[in-house]
Amino acid sequence: xxxxxxxxxxxxxxxxxxxxxxxxxxxxxxxxxxxxxxxxxxxxxxxxxxxxxxxxxxxxxxxxxxxxxxxxxxxxxxxxxxxxxxxxxxxxxxxxxxxxxxxxxxxxxxxxxxxxxxxxxxxxxxxxxxxxxxxxxxxxxxxxxxxxxxxxxxxxxxxxxxxxxxxxxxxxxxxxxxxxxxxxxxxxxxxxxxxxxxxxxxxxxxxxxxxxxxxxxxxxxxxxxxxxxxxxxxxxxxxxxxxxxxxxxxxxxxxxxxxxxxxxxxxxxxxxxxxxxxxxxxxxxxxxxxxxxxxxxxxxxxxxxxxxxxxxxxxxxxxxxxxxxxxxxxxxxxxxxxxxxxxxxxxxxxxxxxxxxxxx
Length: 360
Ligand SMILES: [Zn+2]
Prior knowledge:
This protein is α/β, with parallel strands linked by helices. The protein contains 11 helices and 13 strands.
């Protein structure tokens, strides 16, 4: 979601450096791997990291492996690759990127390094968006991280918190650990080769990889971004959604009305299991139906606000999605913070769209 998620990350970083939080991504043995069908494995990030780092899926075929999405760093991607190699000696032949956001694409080089023949695939707009959006956003993010780290180092040296109050010995230790984690993250972002790697193959419409019961359909949607790919394994009834459908929808680069259409059409597919870009594996279509309802409600309320002539801020205040927040974020503080960051950005896109002003 970076670089939308990076926005969230930047916000989270101040909290991260100021308070207790999940430690960074060092020691990635905390991944969980769930077999969702024969030869089909979801590699899932731990809950505390689920909005900052993305899931992957891999399919072990007869003569090679198909992988969906990388992570935001070579190190985090390497941890996923270790899970793949623990389960098959076959080479990774196809790597499908669900969209251009850095947390899904910044590990491409880790695959190319190990399997030079791998074919990296994304929608036709993904290469341009990686180079013109993901890479500059990552570099800005590095700058913000470095500033936050420097400020945190000052506080540690002076043994004070943000308000200038004395920092207890325990909190000094926590802050030192958080600075170390943040430095690891910055080093990871700097280690990604420039220019960022991009897909070998850009497609439009639909692409089929493999054949027969092993076939994977790659379908383009304009929803979470202009170049989303959904991977559908019809024989297994597995839908790999990237961020078109994840734990909580981030819409800051989205197209709300065609997002609704996408979710409606995906609902028509035979789906047994959904593997989202962030969050846990979902059985059946309940989560899909809930998120679709939420988007319909959001679009309807924003459309009515625009008809009444409301400006953006008034629109954001007028939209009531409280019952969806309750069902989607519950009382999980991480999800609650994510929701509060994600939804205003989504409303802004819907507002622009309703006024016919949504940029490409
Ligand atoms: Zn995303």
